[in-house]
Structures are given as C-alpha cells and as structure tokens.
Amino acid sequence: MFRGAGIALLLAVGVTLSGCVSTEETPSYYQNLESHSAQIDASTVASMISSYRSQKDLPPVTVDPELMQVAQAQADGMARAEDVNATRKGDLTLSVLMKNAGQGDVHAANNLSAGYRRWAEAFSGWRDSPKHNAVMLDAEGTRIGIATAYAPGSKYKVFWSLVVAGPR
C-alpha cells in the first residue's frame, strides 16, 4: 500500500512541478537571428516601431511586401560583401531599389547596420543613434520593410536593413 501511495505522491509532485516550467517560446524580438534560416518577424517590428512612434504623436507603420523585398536585397548585398557600405553605390542604393520595385519618387529612408543579433538589440541601438532614430520617427513614413541576412564569415554576422517609406 505504501508503495502505491509513494508513486501517487511522486506523480502529484511531478504534475505540480511541471506547471512551474514555462513552455512558452522566446518572444520574437529576442530571437537570435544568427543563422541562415532565421527570419525577422516583420509584424513585431512594425508593432514596436508603431508603438514608439505613437509616443511622439506619429502615425503607425504597416509592413509592405515590396519594401520587404527592397530591405532583403540590401541586407543580402551587405552580407555578400560583408560590408554595410556595399549599399552606398550601384544597384543596392535605396533609390535604385525603390525605382526597380515600382515605388517611383516615393519618400523613403533606411537604416543599415550590422552586428545586432536580435531585433530588441537593433531597436535599442537605432533608438539611441540620432540618425537611425530619425528614420524610425520619419514623419512621412507609413510603410516599412525589414530584413536581415547572415554572413557566418563576417565579424558582424547579421546585417540589417529597415526601409521606411511614405504612402504611394
């Protein structure tokens, strides 16, 4: 009889303790993007930037599929070159990519960076940098595209592009 009661007690304790272990995943803004398969959660980015903008009485931003492609082209180009400056000339400039995406003369600005492993880190770094912060708080911005690219041989590992554009 004691043996059965002991097993029942162990099962009860096990069930109780299993409730203490969280099975929730890491929030997407803390996801490590240091791999080829990792993808930034664009809706989380738009939500965080919109919330930040609302504190400054600015309109929210939405994710735009064409701007996502522009951002991905820039991030991929930087990763291939292992250099953020790769986007400053040729086919990777924002103006060329925007034109090729059919965006015409729409107002656009971007943040380019490397080295941040998580969206939370990039957001904090950009918020603390006057030039990067100005892009996130661009009063004309209503749409965004965000992308990362991984370059394992680079000292930076993860390259970032955020495109903020006005309405079409």
TrEMBL record:
Residue span, SCP domain: 48-162
Pfam families: CAP
SUPFAM superfamilies linked to this entry: PR-1-like
InterPro entries membership: CAP_dom, CAP_sf
PANTHER family: SCP DOMAIN-CONTAINING PROTEIN
Protein name: Uncharacterized conserved protein YkwD, contains CAP (CSP/antigen 5/PR1) domain
